[in-house]
Design a protein that fits this description.
Number of strands: 12
Radius of gyration: 32 Å
Structural class: alpha/beta
Number of helices: 12
Distance between the termini: 107 Å
Mean pLDDT: 85
Helix content: 40-55%
Number of domains: 1
């Protein structure tokens, strides 16, 4: 009897231990382990999200002030060095004092793979000569009637037997037509032309990166008036079937005409930038230049077109309302931001609280 009771109690004790162990494992240990696993998984997920956010965010925006000297000629050399560090097969030279003959040259420069440089009234100086030697182009285009005659023989002293082509019409319309002809000669076909004002440079330099990247020659028309016969004849000769008209209400006989015309040159520039994005250009590389003087924006056209960048114009060193709105709305897209001879604007952009002075 006693022996049986002893066995019974032993078995009951063992069952209790097993049941207790089961209860502890089932009700306490497993939930704890599951919570731990869930906690580990949540931690991993949170870390992964953080790391993913860090690694997938695009690189920080690089702000660069581009200024190579005390004047427009030095700045043009600085832009050339930045855009063509390994030299270039071709070069376009224009006068630094006459915009009407120069605003059409960006598509020519890009078609032949070279920069645009400005020539002083006295001819090629030491700094310009040094940059031409560095670029070492085999072909040079001299555009416009305002270039000093000395440039031709100076080039032959600087370079080894370059092919020099002069493109100088009797007026800016004819010069632009001659430039357009050379663009077609290089590219083979021209599907679209750009019509820009001959008496206002801001619109032409704003559209230049787009026109150059797409291979669209820039032709001229008065801001308030119809294109002259020279421009109409050039359109027919080029065989273009469509046109982009910027900053002018010039009437064309083409059936496919798009217009970007704002209330002023700066609003037109903003419209051009927005349109350019729809044409494959990118705000990832954006540059600011003065809209009150043509040279800095002019030389930026070929430079920006190389990676389909966009040019925005400043007024009195500040951003006009239309430009400011477009810029601030697209800050996240901009990865490289160049300030061409605009160091004060660069400081303002770096310190958003100082933007209160923005032109409105």
């Amino acid at each position: 009897m006693a022996q049986g009771l002893k066995w019974f109690l032993s078995i009951a004790f063992l069952c209790g231990v097993v049941a207790g162990t089961y209860y502890a494992v089932d009700r306490l240990l497993w939930p704890a382990l599951e919570r731990r696993a869930a906690g580990d998984e949540t931690g991993t997920t949170m870390t992964a999200v953080t790391e993913s956010s860090t690694t997938t965010t695009t690189t920080p925006r690089a702000n660069r002030v581009v200024a190579g000297g005390p004047d427009r000629y030095g700045t043009a050399v600085a832009v050339s060095k930045l855009g063509f560090p390994e030299g270039a097969p071709a070069l376009v030279l224009v006068s630094g004092d006459a915009y009407a003959d120069a605003v059409s040259v960006a598509p020519l420069a890009v078609a032949y793979g070279g920069p645009i440089l400005l020539v002083p009234a006295e001819g090629i100086d030491t700094d310009l000569s040094t940059e031409i030697q560095r670029l070492d182009p085999s072909r040079v285009f001299l555009v416009g009637a305002s270039l000093p005659p000395s440039v031709t023989w100076q080039l032959r002293d600087i370079l080894k037997e370059p092919t020099v082509t002069k493109l100088a019409g009797s007026d800016p319309y004819e010069t632009a037509a001659l430039v357009a002809r050379e663009v077609k000669a290089k590219l083979g076909t021209v599907s679209k032309v750009v019509i820009a004002p001959s008496d206002s440079f801001a619109e032409a330099i704003a559209v230049a990166p787009l026109a150059a990247a797409k291979g669209w020659p820039i032709l001229l028309s008065p801001q308030n008036g119809d294109p002259p016969g020279t421009t109409n004849a050039a359109i027919r000769e080029l065989g273009a079937t469509s046109a982009l008209v910027v900053g002018t209400n010039a009437k064309l006989t083409l059936s496919d005409v798009e217009r970007q015309v704002g209330a002023d040159s700066y609003e037109t520039c903003a419209l051009i930038a927005a349109y350019a994005v729809t044409q494959g250009m990118s705000l990832a590389h954006t540059a600011f230049a003065s809209g009150e003087a043509f040279p800095d924006g002019l030389v930026a056209g070929a430079y920006l077109a190389r990676d389909r960048g966009i040019l925005l114009l400043a007024k009195d060193g500040r951003l006009p309302a239309a430009i400011f709105s477009l810029f601030t709305a697209n800050l996240e897209a901009i990865r490289t931001l160049d300030f061409i001879a605009l160091p004060d604007l660069a400081k303002e952009v770096a310190n958003p609280s100082s933007q209160t002075g923005t032109t409105q």
